Amino acid sequence: MKEKLINGHPHIQLTHDNPDIDILRLRSEDFYLSMNKRRSVRDFSSQNIPKEVIENIIKTAATAPSGAHKQPWTFCIISNPDIKKKIRAAAEKEEFESYQSRMSEQWLKDLEPIGTDWRKPFLETVPYIIVVFKKIYDEEEGQKKTNYYVNESVGIACGFLISAIHQAGLATLTHTPSPMNFLSEILERPKNERPYLLLPLGYPAEETYVPKLKRKDLDEMAKFYS
Predict the structure, then answer these.
(1) Which of 140, 131, 143 is CA-nearest to residue 73?
(2) Contact by Cβ (8 Å): 65, 223
(3) Selection from 198, 25, 68, 36 nearest residue 126 by Cα
(4) Which member of 33, 89, 104, 128 has the greatest number of CB atoms within 10 A?
(5) CA dihedral 195, 201, 206, 208 (to 10 degrees)
(6) What is the pTM of this model?
(7) What domains does the chain contain, in order, with CATH numbers?
């Protein structure tokens, strides 16, 4: 593998297979067809998942690009039943308040076709919960080190994470109880981290129903400038 110095730092030559046009078409279509089957799930099986699978999913998420390669994320993986119980209780408390007084009438109306409410039993049913924290800054020897484009970087990593979960054959749900400060307290995270996203992770329950939704057509969401 070839190496060279750029600005005094080592770089390695990129390895890329450059597939032909037919392979490009096939790969892009296959990935789209797979991802188009992805659905958010709220009914999970308690069936266990090998830890190695979870580790591979997390490592995949961490391949995401980040501002100045600061990798400003921490993935907390919870399988402990007592911790999951605490998370459920705290999340349901916040969600109850949101559904009762924080959400507008329009917001609640928009949620009706999804069929959600403040109850979140899946937080105890699933074998794993992944809580993603964003690192506002890093600390080295007591000094703050700036992280760049933190929200964007962590958002991209979460996209990779959700894709990896689906490709592995599992299901998840993007859960964002607001506010989420209770996650920092329960998981005893340092002051430079903020909760970003909570993902229950497991197999769908044997009989699971999801809303009958239609995704936007290509011409509704994309503009091509030739």
Answers:
(1) 131
(2) no
(3) 198
(4) 128
(5) 40
(6) 0.94
(7) 47-205 (3.40.109.10)
Residue 18 is inside which H or E element, if any? none
Residue type at position 182: F
Q: For the segment 64-85, what is each residue's pLDDT rounded down to a tens digit?
A: 999 999 999 999 999 999 999 9
Q: Token pair of 160, please? A: 């990779």
> For residue range 126-144, what is the model confidence (pLDDT) as tens digits?
999 999 999 999 998 889 9
Burial group, residue 126, by CB count within 10 angstroms (0-12, 13-18, 19+): buried
Tokens for 220? 């509704």
Residues 6 or more apart whose CB falls under 8 angstroms from that of 123 comprise: 84, 87, 88, 91, 129, 175, 200
Distance of alpha carbon 20 from alpha carbon 4, whole angstroms: 29
Length of the chain: 226
CA distance 180 to 81: 19
